[in-house]
Amino acid sequence: MTDRNPRNRAPQRRPDRVRRVAYQVIRQVTAEGGYANLALNKALREARLGGRDAAFCTELVHGTLRWQGTYDAFLARSVSRALEDLDPELLDLLRLGSHQLLNMRVDSYAAVSEMVTLTRSELGQKRTGLVNAVLRKISQRTLDQWIAAVAPPLDEDRLGHLAIANAHPRWVIEAFDRALEGSGLEELLVADNEPPRVTLVARPGLADVDELVAAGATPARWSPYGAVLDAGGDPGRIAAVAGGRAGVQDEGSQLVAIALASAKVDGDDTNWLDLCAGPGGKSALLASLMQDGQLTAVEPLKHRAELVRQNLRAAPGNHKVLVGDGTKPTWPAGSFDRVLADVPCSGLGALRRRPEARWRRTPEDVEELRPLQEALLDSAVTSVRPGGVVAYVTCTPHPDETRAVVDAVLARRDDAVLEDARPLFPGVPDLGEGPDVQLWPHLHGTDAMYLALIRRS
């Protein structure tokens, strides 16, 4: 049979493979609640993307998710209907296109053309006209011009302006401003938007920094066991990491574990507890730092407890991993010489690594976590013996999850005191007035880890 409409049968242009992978990862994160790092790593492996393609895909995913709220403010000025009336899959396409136009060195014509092709492939021909029109509007201004057009004036609403200009929800900026006491907020927000470097830890007695340096890393600034992969790459290719003698761990996480292990205790020092251990990075470092004795690692979820076991597989000694609730100890009070309480938190200190978290978390999350944080710290203090120490640790600088929790627990007890933790961070500058320690991305190049050192009296 003769084709009566041959002009309608022209082959359609295929979408760019890298952009398609990036879009599908973004959909997993926004629609299914996935985690960007896990979804992206899996997608890169399955699509066999490496080198420049992998780097481009990573920036498409992380950048789009990181700047999501800011792009939504721009798109609201460029779409004739409310954003909540757009189909979520269409909105994600517009965000992905906006990132290429405003924050990447992609030619505007190429970016719009590629996104129209991707729209046709993923959502059908009917959506292409809207995508083309909206992205052309976005392309008519630079990022700075869009910020000037949309954000409130800096001198009238400083925090509102910074929220748009630096892609953070206002409530997060308000919490950071409280924690910083008005100094360094803009520098922190800029640092939060910088992709973090891959940081490794050489677990003492199992590997050393020289081995990691020989594999292409450079020594970290503060941790004597840390090294940084400046050029990125797959840390799993390093023999020490593959064998569990080293691991991937932010330098801030290393520093708080080292601080706990360095604190002075009187008497025996052979029984340590990691009360909230999963996935086990700090457990592995603590176990390696022990001279003798046993580390007990507690984790309520079975699959995360298995991750702890994997992280401890190379550590010397007979360490225990328990599946259980840290707020309901199965051991006698005063059983341990040192206790790490790295409690569940909002994770606002690791926004560099988790680009989706800033838009996923809410003020209600902080409020809901507070009772658990207090219960875990109270359990930690009860679990340590007189003369022993507890490190209360969070990966958030939010004041309601840090000092407020410590103050609330210690106010109810007369058998514990807060000690100055700053001497346990030798050589690390800008540690504030103490006695607790707050690390910062813009000051220390680490996640915003918090530590309070508490001694059982």
Explain what this protein looks like in three dimensions:
This protein is an alpha/beta fold and 457 residues long. It folds into four domains: 134 residues, NusB-like (N-utilizing Substance Protein B Homolog, Chain A, Orthogonal Bundle), CATH 1.10.940.10; 42 residues, no CATH class; 51 residues; 206 residues, Rossmann fold, CATH 3.40.50.150. Helices cover 46% and strands 13% of the residues. The chain is built from 20 helices and twelve strands. Strands 5, 6, 7, 8, 9, 10, 11 and 12 form an eight-stranded mixed beta sheet that branches. The protein has a four-stranded antiparallel beta sheet with strand order 2-3-1-4. α3 packs across α5 and α5 packs antiparallel against α6. The longest helix has 21 residues. The radius of gyration is 25 Å and the shape is globular. The termini are far apart. The N terminus is likely disordered. Its EC number is 2.1.1.176.
